[in-house]
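Discussion board: Methods & Data

I've been asked by a reviewer to show the raw model output for two of the constructs in my manuscript, not just the figures. I'm not sure how much to include, so I'm pasting the format here to get opinions. Each protein appears as its amino acid sequence followed by a line of discrete structure tokens. Is this the kind of thing reviewers expect to see in a supplement, or should I convert it first? Here is construct A:
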Amino acid sequence: MTNAVAGHEVAILGGGCFWCLEAVFQQIDGVASVVSGYIGGHTEAPDYHSVCEGTTGHAEVVELRFDPARVSYATLLEVFFAIHDPTTPNRQGNDVGSQYRSAIFATTPAQLDEARVCVARLTAEGIFPAPIVTELQMAPRFWPAEDYHQDYFRQNGERQPYCLFVVAPKVAKFRARFAALLGQG
């Protein structure tokens, strides 16, 4: 997997519904693009319906292209661990199934090492009341989700109930805690 494109690096993170992750990471200065998609399964060309059934083994994730001169991978991991519960296996809130697992799919060995260090630090600091179960592995093939899942919160945030009751509060919490990271997004 090529990690650098025109000065950008790629990070792939899974922490529940990709709509929530996308809505947060789009707002960070230095994140050039966020693509919702699927990774880590055993079928070719997964689609939303089959992933939601939980039969493909894929996780809902976001693929971030970011400028490491403007935002570090460590900072992206800090945000990632703040916006989801990494202690619940195969679930985030009411979203239950392996497709909603907490996972970091590293695109370089250095990212994998950094993720391990981050998890060890959070564990040592006792940040969470239960053990972190975030899956850490090198990234297999990433499959972009269907077009209607891209930029989902921006397009549906004011009318879709899940966006109103789940995504919007998560975005508000992020904006309050990480105001210094906000870009023009």
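Construct B, same format:
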Amino acid sequence: MEQTGEIAGAAGGDHPGAVEGGALSQPIDAVLTWVDGEDPAHVAKRKAYDPGFGAAGVEATRFASRDEIRFSLSALLKFAPWLRCIHIVTDGQTPAVVEELWADPAMRARVKIVDHAVIYRGHEDLLPVFSSRSIETALYRIPDLAERYIYLNDDFFLIRPVQASDFFTETGPILRGRWITRAYGLVVWMQLVVGRLKGRGKNWRPSGFKAGQLNAARLVAPGWRLFSFGHTPHPLRRSTFQRFEASHPGVIEANMAPRFRHGSQFNPTSLGTHLELAAGTATVAASDNTVYFRADVDRPDRVREKIAEAEAREDALFICVNSLDQAGSQVQADILDFLRRRIL
């Protein structure tokens, strides 16, 4: 049974729900995934393995960068100084901001670069991989990773001080999301039918955000409910994945294998989430504490409204900015100006 207790609103500092002082008995790391998809060597590598029409996750925007890693990393250092270590998982690259930080020798111990070859050790035949789901599946294999860690994409940004107790209790992770019906599988089935009609091939399967979560929930337990989360930092535990790997031989390796995203894959963060809920070790927060930007879709006036909301809401601890590279010049300028004012 999942733990049913909730924490109120936001946490962070003196916010409701925070443990006094925010201190916990175990260290916590952060893990960021990043790639400079405009690096000519990376572009050539992707093209060499591009599976062609019908594949998911091959769009250039998935690998594009507007230096979001600078803001994401800087925000962690500014607003979560209690983190033991920040691991940045990359494909043979080092962000410029890390090179700058490493001018301070103390930062070399706090900010580490982890290559795909390291987390795929023993499975080098699967490299290179470009699927975020494949890479995320292997994150718990990072050497010297803390038992408790927070996983973020490089387009997730802390915008206020947070405490360890915003992410974990002594028992386990604090989850941000909600239960929905697994009837969402009907949507996935309809997407499959449409894809087949469009000639995407017999091996094609829908690989959307909720579809990956649904695949994960089915691995953990039967039933009619799915714990669905949005684009927000995710607290995870290394031992949860290690136990699953030991009891389900071959499942983790199979999810690490696709070079590009495939509909057969489960969302590994969702797997960890559902395993914690099934074990009764998770707590569900009352709010996701996040303001979400769809930069490629939101109009400039809507972006300004969201920026004002993020500034005004004391319980808004995070923002996520999807597809900044595809946004218009005004939207890009407004969002980057906000990030500079808030973080740098």
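Answer (T.O., handling editor elsewhere):
This is acceptable in a supplement if you add a one-line summary per construct. For B, something like: Residues 38 and 69 are 14 Å apart (CA to CA).
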